[in-house]
From TrEMBL:
<dbReference type="Pfam" id="PF05458">
    <property type="entry name" value="Siva"/>
</dbReference>
<dbReference type="InterPro" id="IPR022773">
    <property type="entry name" value="Siva"/>
</dbReference>
<protein>
    <submittedName>
        <fullName>Apoptosis regulatory protein Siva-like</fullName>
    </submittedName>
</protein>
<dbReference type="GO" id="GO:0097191">
    <property type="term" value="P:extrinsic apoptotic signaling pathway"/>
</dbReference>
<dbReference type="GO" id="GO:0005175">
    <property type="term" value="F:CD27 receptor binding"/>
</dbReference>
Length: 175
């Protein structure tokens, strides 16, 4: 009994009488992001919508004011990206009743000229180069295939052999 009296007596800690979430004493910082997503979400989204619409109208005005051209500057000299600069040959493609794309009658897109070697045979002759009308792959005249329906130039990956009386090629747009 005397031995137990000599040992130090350990007291139990008393529990905190307050809750763990003392809201009046906690440091709370509310950012603009939380306010914009919560209480002020309607006003914030209205501001975002108005600003986006304003920027879109400014961009539309700039594109209407700037003249469209088929040339780009490369090293100080202008080079044409298209063989024909006649813009009347470009026509809107239309959907048929079967859901296929079709070109209007008389519409022929000019063939684009590429300044890169042929992707099939790696030959390069600047006077002989063109590109596929579907995938824009640079091709020489010996690697191009002409579609029997639309008469455009295509590579072997974008055209298919036709094994009937015509014995020609048909492109992905016309099949």
């Amino acid at each position: 009994m005397f031995a137990s009296a000599c040992q130090p007596f350990s007291m139990v800690k008393r529990s905190c009488p307050f809750n763990d979430d003392m809201n009046p004493q906690m440091k709370i910082h509310v950012r603009d992001k939380e306010v914009a997503k919560g209480v002020m979400s309607d006003q914030h989204m209205k501001l975002v919508y108005d600003k986006t619409k304003h920027l879109l109208f400014l961009g539309a005005k700039k594109t209407q004011a700037a003249p469209a051209s088929n040339t780009f500057l490369n090293g100080g000299e202008a080079k044409e990206d298209v063989v024909s600069s006649n813009s009347t040959t470009f026509k809107q493609m239309q959907l048929t009743s079967q859901g296929q794309l079709s070109s209007p009658e008389g519409a022929q897109t000019p063939f684009k000229v590429k300044e890169a070697p042929c992707s099939k045979c790696t030959a390069w002759n600047p006077l002989d180069m063109c590109c596929c009308s579907f995938c824009d792959t640079p091709l020489c005249s010996s690697c191009t295939q002409i579609c029997t329906k639309c008469q455009d130039l295509f590579c072997s990956g974008c055209s298919f052999d036709v094994y009937d009386a015509s014995e020609g090629f048909i492109c992905r747009n016309c099949c």
